[in-house]
Amino acid sequence: MVAIGAVLAGVWAVGQLACPHSDLTLAPVPAGPEAQAFARKSFLDTRDFDVKTLERFEPYGNLQSWVATAASGERCLVVDADDYGVVGVSCTPGDLAPIVDVRIWRGMRRDVFGDLPTGSVLRFEYDDGRVHVWVREPATPAPG
Length: 144
Prior knowledge:
By secondary structure, this protein is of the alpha+beta class. Helix content is about 20%, strand content about 35%. A hairpin with a 6-residue loop joins strand 3 (about 55) and strand 4 (about 65-70). It starts with a helix and ends in an 8-residue tail after the last strand.
């Protein structure tokens, strides 16, 4: 019995090492009155989403993550910047994790996207009630 437990623990540990982990995990925060305003400014009010399902997460810099669930069970992850607008949306069936990739292009506002070099990618993924964030800078700097 102890040997089986040791084998299962070893398999779990290898799985944890093989699975890429996010750079940051954002926890849910109260949506507050911003939820109604966000639902109106985004596409959510045009679909079968109930504003009561809207979840807000800790910000990543000046980017705000929201998740809404439709009556069909479809979940949408929306990444928004107050002064910039919606920068990415991903809607998936309930059993898939919605993912939004934001690529940093030359000329994007530093006050929104920070000092990441051109070509960097921010990945936001909603899974297990949290938004996980990966930050990847380009392997070689972009010209210009």
